[in-house]
Every structure is written in C-alpha cells, then in structure tokens.
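Posting here for the record, re: iron/sulfur cluster.
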Amino acid sequence: MAKGLSFSYSKMGMYKECPQKYKFRYVHMLPEQPKYYFAFGSAMHEVMEYIYDPKNPIFPTLQQALAFFKKHWDATSFDQKGYASMEKEAAGFEEGCQILRAYYDKYGANLVHPLSVEMKSTLDMDGLSLISILDRIDYLGDGCVKILDYKTGKTVQREPDQLMMYQKVAEASPMVLKLVQTIDPAIKTVRVEQMSFYHLPTQQELLFERSSDKEMYEFWQRVLGVADNIRAGKFAPDPDENKCRWCDYRNICPVFTGKEYEGPGGWGAKTGTGTASSAKPTVSAVAKTTEEILSEKIDRLGSMQQEEKKLKTEIMSLMKELKFKRHFGSKFEAELIDTQKIEFKDQEKTMALLRRLQLLSKTLVPTQSSIRALLNDPTVEEPAKKQLRELATENNISDLEIKEVS
Ligand code: SF4
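Prediction output follows.
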C-alpha cells in the first residue's frame, strides 16, 4: 500500500503561513537556520520528560533535574542553538533553571506519574501519515484523558487547530487506548475530556474543553484540503512584510528573486508529494549571498568581541582579587599592565599656563596627548613640568596582555 503523505500540525501551520515556505522546507528539504526559542523549548521538553518519565518510579530531585538540564544544554554550542552570543545563551540557561526551581516549588512535593510523556504517534488516516508528539497524557478515569502541552514562548494563546489535532490523534491512537487499558482493561474507546497548554515561564495552565463533533469535522476537512493542495503541488508564495522579514528562504524566494528556485544539480526538481531528495543541502549551503556571508561574519566578530570584553574584565578582576600580576593557563599567559593616564581637565587654565610658559608652540595642536608629551620632553624645564603636573589629574589604567606561553 502506498505510504500516505507525511503530515503534522506544524507542517500544516507552515503551509498555512506560506505554501512556498513549506515547499522550501519539506519538498526541497532545506532546513531552516537554528532558532534559539526552538532550542530552549526542546531543552525544557526534555527535562519535563525526564521528571515525569513513567519508567522511573522515583521522581528526580530538583538538583537532579537541574543537572539533567545542564547536561542537555551543554551538548550544543550557543550558535548551534541559534543564540546570538554566549551571553544570551547563558541567560537562556538561567531562565530554564529558574523555571525548574519555580516548577519544583509549586509541584515538587506532589508529583504524580502521568499515563505517558512525549508520546510519538504515527497514524495512517485518510491517505495521511499523521505524526504527533503528545507532551503529557493524564488519565482521568472512565476512558477519559487530559492532553497537556508545554509552552515556553513569551506568551501563550489558544491554538484551535493544535487542540483539535491532539483530540483527533489521541482518540484514534491504538497506543493511547493500549495505555488506558493497562489501567482499565474494560475500556474500548478513549475520550479526550480536557486539553491544556501549560506555560512554563509563568507556571500558568490554560484549560480547554474538547471540541464538538461539528468543529472536528470542519477541522478535518481543512486538514484534507491542505493535504490535497500539497499533493497537487500548489505552493504559491504568500508574502507578508512580517513573515518574509524573518523567513530563512527570502534570498531564494521567487517573490524576491523574480524566478522559480530550481536547486543545484537538479535536486530541486519540482515535486508535489513531499518526497525527500536523497541529497539534503542546507539553506546556508545553497542560498547564502556574499552580503549574507558578510553579515554573518560581522555578527560573529561582534559576538566574539563582546565575549572577549567580558572575559577580559573577569580575568582582570580575578587577578586583582588574587593580587597577581601574571598568571598562566596551559597555553597562554596573562600579564596585568598598569599605566598612569594623566588628564588636563581645566582647559582654560592649561592653555593660559602653556602660553605663560611659552610652550604652546611646542604642542602644535594642544590635545591631551600632545600636552602630556611635554611632561616627557627633555627640552621643557622641570619647574614648567611641575606647574603642568599641578593642573593634571592622574588615573591608573589597567590593561591585560595575553601571550602564547613559550
Ligand atoms: S520570503 Fe515570504 S513569500 Fe517567500 S517563502 Fe518566505 S514567507 Fe513565503
């Protein structure tokens, strides 16, 4: 039997957002750039799965949950996660830890094992191979279940299509029925009685009732309509200023290039079935313009400079605290270099004095550095230097020199 069109709520969402974008992502198989909010959401989902894993009879402590979160978080670098800098990545990690602490404060003493966590289901239905991940299923008794979805964005709102997809999948899934029957063997059908979005950053739960049969029928017709359009190869772009500004496919999109994207080496030949090509080039591999490469390098350099500044301040402060002038790493050494900076803040008095001492002509243009140079000028008399010094304020400036250890 021919395999159905691979379909999910997120695929439907992308097609509705812009069919052309769907085509780039799922027909041409061009992955999007990593997004920090997806990485953050995925890390939070992983740790919630770890906390509630029905295979572990004893719930992990907060410390164990934090350690698990750190291990998962540290498995990828900041840019692999889509963060702009290590600082931003560190702020994301701290936010995740705060969420876990707040979650344990609220529920730590009363954690209850759900029916399942992160249940991945693939259902064949009406020519579709429907893929869903149900974050958490709680059993309410009498064959009724509650589906809970964790949200980690800034805000959370009702997403009717997502709720209806969960209802459809959970009620049709043999896996969910089997799980319910492990508790209630007499149950023949599963009913989704409640659904909720649990917003982890605010620890708030939004509860939703099940959708009516009429709503479910209309929803399913919309799903089948989208699937028909995909099979028919209808991928007309649906541009919109906001959508296109953040779209990773902008520079290969016909709206902006004026021509249909063909893909290198013929792998981008038109298909309407969602069949994956064996070669899977990334957007960055095929689509970056020189300007984009330049922008990326500027961003990378900017992030590195920010990181360098932060590290330098931290090293200097540690060296001062330990009263070290020099210290060694395994490859590099650092030396704290103190210099004195002399400043002439009262410009009028300084100029009057220079005039009186007939030193004005020596400075060419009287800037801070040219006046400072007079203090080291052997042709300037010591009494004149003394008077100049009396007008100056001196500040100690520290800098750090890093050299490779020889
Ligand atoms: S740039 Fe705009 S029109 Fe083109 S694929 Fe992206 S969202 Fe669609």
